Amino acid sequence: MEFLELVKLRESVRGYIDKKVEEEKILKCIEAARLAPSACNSQPWKFVVVNDKEILSEIKNKIYDSVIGINKFVLTAPVIIAVVGEKRNLTSAIGSSIKKKDYTSMDVGIAVEHLCLQATELGLGTCIIGWFKNEEIKKALGIPKNRDIELIVSLGYNNNENPREKKRKNIEDIVAFNKY
């Protein structure tokens, strides 16, 4: 598949069919994320894959917020991946402090996109989720108190076979050559 075609196929999936995701496909997605670049090669991430039905049920209810009705689609996801921000190496930590940039968030974002593109290539759907009950999920998954879940990714087989049309700004509105 051409890379741009893959990028066009990737979408935020809001519903999954009731089908188990094969472990080898999950591991291939994690491998793609593992190979992502990071500032000073710090690789500040750990992926907690949740596919046990009992644990999954508990975690889903900490992502879906019934009060405001956000993330209800996650209730259909057969896999949830909690992406935990890990300690950076010294060089990256110093650079982050000096430049006042959150390299962990940037690096995790790159790794998660690698994961999502690999999933798309394998015929899987994903959704990157930023709204969830961090402390409750950390406790349920045994994540240390001094770590945070940066993002959550739902993973499974899309219940919609036709990708939605991407609505994006025109390229002329987002690019400038040589000067702003």
UniProtKB/TrEMBL annotation:
Residues 10-68, 70-157 form the Nitroreductase domain. Belongs to the nitroreductase family. The keyword Oxidoreductase applies. PANTHER family: NAD(P)H NITROREDUCTASE YDGI-RELATED, NADH DEHYDROGENASE_NAD(P)H NITROREDUCTASE XCC3605-RELATED. GO terms for molecular function: oxidoreductase activity. This is Nitroreductase. Pfam families: Nitroreductase. It comes from Clostridium collagenovorans DSM 3089. It comes from the Bacteria. Keywords: Oxidoreductase.
